[in-house]
């Protein structure tokens, strides 16, 4: 796209879509085609995608395209009719979970899944209190905006929400478990019954953290003792991304009461779900009617099933572990030459690279991070940043990312960091 | 499907999906294929679809299948990159609205659209109060369950929600406008600031009502005078279904502040939107970050654009008006011979047939309605029922429904009603 055409399209976009619609990068990127880990612009220039976790099994994977095309031409209707696709998918998906998690409800988005999980937790506990991390993001609905402080709405935190510290392995300024305990006690002191601890198992928006052994279990126990549920938000870490396990929560022995799934589930097709203990779904289902018009339609189920099969057939979880370790190694070598890299962390192919102005004080290098993200885009590698100070590079490529792609990313990051000096 | 196979699939479904998942009809229907107004079971028996408003331009319309297939193979990503599909669709869709409604935000479901509309209304008004009809349904999120009394959750109505009477043209037991005025006054007396009047323009779940000239305008004015917005929920009546106009709200001269769209928008593909005044989106967008991962992706935009084009090219709104009138005529003739039909009403191809045990007392014939719905299913015509007593037959076919299909429906309804005697 010529820059005048791009400018014109941006102006039209702003007119029709308004202020909520923001674009990445100083120079917005306009892909026209995707394949595997590559996105192409209209001049057929290839951009290495190290950011998009939705197209998790690779952009435009033929198995998903075929599933969607075939089923769309055959039948697309709702779950008040009987169709094998949702049953077959549910059984297959549930086989990926501990046997206690034996039920699934399908929605269209991770937001709908998290919102439903809160409804189930409030129904079960009879309470309203929700505990989330200080810079959490859980979705776009009214109920989820309340528990998504990273939206920075400027609104006061709702009285039934408590913010706790993420298990920050780099700064170690706070204790996640102690923070959860204090939140529960504070709620109870104010007469608020805890309904749930809701955590993203890789703490994506807080800055990409992997809790140390036992932290999630201890926090979950504390909330359960107070009558609440432990909800694992797997919208980001789920479906093998963390490499060592299918679901982020499985790094620890504790089994969540509810697990929410989204982004990579349909490789871009809008499909999501809540998985959990059937007793909880039954309790909720007998009290309240829940019907999601598009949720679990045959096209969505076939798309999601294709994703699950590819994940297994192409061994993408093992690839995430292997290439993720390899990439982290490469990034840590870069850190030897670039003082601005304070920390390299993450699991599998969800990696955070924290940039700091000073390794002693750990002062966040927010401006540098923005410069790196834009510099990488100019070098045709797509990444972004995360964390409260947006100083942590977020590297989260499709799971078909290979070692050669990791090499390319490290090489271009090296050049970009050299430009900073 | 043999009945043993069906029973087995139902048992597996209950095991994996639990209590929330309910099936229509005494003998559940298992379609395997759809085309136009027809759904086919595995024995290739054809069922006339007079119920599904999602597949609005006809099941598996080739233009939508082609749009989805082609774009899925090319690129499916989010709106933080620049892509013409959302801009082109937004401009074309907005051309279908009064010029004051000049912005659009895309979501994946009507629930997400209604939930976002509430967030925008609360942001604009600084209030929390929401007014809905007594048997309203607006969606599945936490915030929408509060304003969807038809879910019959058994939970007390939230303190910031007021229920008003629908403009019931048959029973005429209550005055919609007076009811809205009283709700506003009651809120204000209790220190609750009204944020919005949220109404389905065809009052689908209340029982299918068309407000008399001026009723919506007067109710909207009353809420606006108190600082709230008028939100038209067009998830059911929108996109030409009501025949006389593209949007249900346009039966009256009043223009809503926000309009929510869903179900038929992608003919089954999960896509939805909020359309409204740009000043409202700007105010919200500057205060709060809103990003919907799948919302407005190129596949969804291409699917929705194909639907809009087919709606115009095949003159489906005019067809809805013509066939809707013709069908109502046929149903009214049936009423001459079947005492159980108390009222035939609706707009275009959204028709309600109210069954009563006694025309004088207007006592709802709930059991008869269930018998008719199941009897029609045995005669291979799909309809359902609505209203607080579920005694109103809900007839809401794809918009490609022709006069010959109306004839078939009337003929089989006649036979089914004869069986009741």
TrEMBL record, chains A, B:
Signal peptide: none annotated. GO terms for molecular function: transaminase activity. It comes from the Bacteria. InterPro entries: Aminotrans_3, Aminotrans_3_PPA_site, PyrdxlP-dep_Trfase, PyrdxlP-dep_Trfase_major, PyrdxlP-dep_Trfase_small. Gene3D superfamilies: Aspartate Aminotransferase, domain 1, Type I PLP-dependent aspartate aminotransferase-like (Major domain). Keywords: Aminotransferase, Pyridoxal phosphate, Transferase. It holds the Pfam family Aminotran_3. The keyword Acetylation does not apply. The keyword Ligase does not apply. Its cofactor is pyridoxal 5'-phosphate. Belongs to the class-III pyridoxal-phosphate-dependent aminotransferase family. This is 4-aminobutyrate aminotransferase. It comes from Pseudomonas mohnii.
């Amino acid at each position: 796209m010529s820059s005048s055409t791009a400018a014109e399209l941006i102006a039209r976009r702003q007119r029709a879509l308004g202020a909520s619609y923001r674009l990445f990068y100083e120079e917005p990127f306009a892909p026209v085609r995707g394949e595997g880990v590559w996105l192409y612009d209209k001049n057929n220039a290839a951009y290495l995608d190290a950011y998009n976790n939705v197209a998790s099994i690779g952009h435009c994977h033929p198995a998903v395209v075929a599933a969607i095309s075939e089923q769309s031409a055959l039948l697309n209707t709702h779950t008040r009719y009987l169709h094998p696709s949702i049953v077959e998918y549910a059984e297959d998906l549930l086989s990926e979970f501990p046997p206690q998690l034996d039920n699934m409800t399908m929605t269209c988005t991770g937001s709908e899944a998290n919102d439903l999980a809160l409804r189930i937790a409030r129904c079960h506990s009879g309470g309203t209190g929700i505990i989330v991390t200080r810079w959490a993001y859980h979705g776009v609905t009214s109920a989820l905006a309340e528990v998504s402080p990273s939206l920075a709405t400027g609104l006061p935190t709702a009285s039934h929400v408590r913010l706790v510290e993420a298990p920050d392995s780099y700064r170690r300024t706070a204790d996640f478990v102690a923070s959860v305990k204090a939140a529960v006690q504070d709620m109870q002191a104010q007469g608020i019954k805890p309904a749930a601890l809701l955590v993203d198992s890789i703490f994506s928006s807080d800055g990409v953290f992997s809790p140390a052994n036992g932290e999630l279990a201890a926090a979950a126990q504390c909330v359960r003792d107070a009558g609440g549920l432990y909800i694992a938000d797997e919208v980001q870490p789920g479906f093998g991304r963390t490499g060592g396990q299918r679901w982020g929560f499985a790094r620890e022995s504790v089994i969540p009461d509810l697990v929410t799934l989204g982004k990579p589930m349909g490789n871009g097709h809008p499909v999501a779900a809540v998985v959990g203990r059937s007793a909880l779904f039954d309790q909720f289902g007998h009290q309240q009617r829940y019907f999601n018009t598009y949720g679990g339609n045959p096209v969505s189920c076939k798309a999601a099933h294709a994703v699950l099969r590819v994940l297994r057939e192409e061994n993408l979880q093992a690839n995430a572990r292997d290439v993720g370790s390899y990439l982290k190694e490469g990034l840590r070598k870069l850190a030897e030459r670039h003082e601005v890299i304070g920390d390299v962390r993450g699991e599998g192919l969800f990696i955070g690279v924290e940039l700091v102005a000073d390794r002693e004080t750990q002062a966040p290098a927010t401006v540098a991070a923005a410069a790196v993200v834009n510099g990488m885009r100019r070098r045709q590698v797509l990444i972004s940043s995360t964390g409260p100070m947006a100083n942590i590079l977020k590297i989260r490529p499709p799971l078909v990312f290979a070692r050669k792609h990791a090499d390319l990313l490290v090489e271009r990051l090296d050049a970009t960091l050299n430009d900073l000096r």
